[in-house]
Every structure is written in C-alpha cells, then in structure tokens.
C-alpha cells in the first residue's frame, strides 16, 4: 500500500450532488454524518461494493481521512472511480458543511 497515491479533494470542495460514502463505524456515523451520505463501514465494503453506483465517482469520507484513503485505493483497484475526502468529517464540519446526528445521538464535535 505504501506510496499509493489516491485522488483527493478538500472536504470544503466536494460538490453537493455526488455519491458520498461514509466508511466509519456505526457509533461514529450516529454521532454525526453528512445528510446524504451512505454508510458502509470499511470492514464491510468488500462484501457490499455492489451497493455503490457504477459509472459515477464515489466520494469517500471517514473521520480524518485515513480509512477513506484505504477504501479509495481499493475501489480504484477494483475498477471503480473513487475520490478521498481529505481531512474527513473533521474537515467537513470545519468547512461548515451540513452534519446530522442520529436519533438524539450527541452532536458531532470536530
């Protein structure tokens, strides 16, 4: 994996109408996620890749950008088009992008 370059975009520059995949764990997702994101934890991604749309770029986010970079590298390796959201949900929230929490979960703190 070392040295593999993954396509990346700053969290504040992610277009509004893209397919956004959140690969964090369920407790992280519940604490706060982008309103239109789809949640598939990183560990489940290989078994659920068919749930992702083909032919469009998938933007992948985690907490700070590490797990999403792994997911992007794998997705591109298997022939999908994927882009890492640099800085993860921390940068997403810091950029003023919308964040929603699940049913009374504590609000996400960047």
Structure explained in plain terms:
The protein has 110 residues and is α/β, with parallel strands linked by helices. It has one domain (8-94): Oxidized Rhodanese, domain 1 (3-Layer(aba) Sandwich), CATH 3.40.250.10. The protein is 26% helix and 16% strand. The protein contains 4 helices and 5 strands, in the order ββαβαβαβα. It has helices spanning 26-31, 45-48, 66-77, 88-94; strands spanning 8-10, 19-22, 38-39, 58-61, 82-86. It has a 5-stranded parallel β-sheet. Strand 4 (58-61), helix 3 and strand 5 form a beta-alpha-beta unit. The model has no long low-confidence stretch (mean pLDDT 92). Residues 14-101 form the Rhodanese domain. This is Sulfurtransferase. InterPro entries: GlpE_sulfurtransferase (IPR050229), Rhodanese-like_dom (IPR001763), Rhodanese-like_dom_sf (IPR036873).
Helix-strand layout with pairing:
Elements: E1 8-10, E2 19-22, H1 26-31, E3 38-39, H2 45-48, E4 58-61, H3 66-77, E5 82-86, H4 88-94
């Amino acid at each position: 994996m070392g040295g593999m370059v993954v396509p990346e975009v700053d969290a504040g520059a992610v277009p509004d109408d893209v397919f956004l995949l959140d690969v964090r764990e369920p407790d992280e997702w519940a604490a706060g996620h982008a309103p239109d994101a789809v949640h598939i934890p990183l560990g489940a991604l290989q078994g659920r890749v068919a749930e992702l749309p083909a032919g469009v770029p998938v933007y992948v986010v985690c907490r700070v950008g590490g797990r999403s970079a792994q997911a992007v590298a794998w997705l591109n390796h298997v022939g999908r088009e994927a882009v890492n959201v640099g800085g993860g949900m921390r940068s997403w929230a810091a950029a003023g992008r919308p964040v929603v929490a699940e049913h009374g979960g504590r609000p996400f703190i960047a």
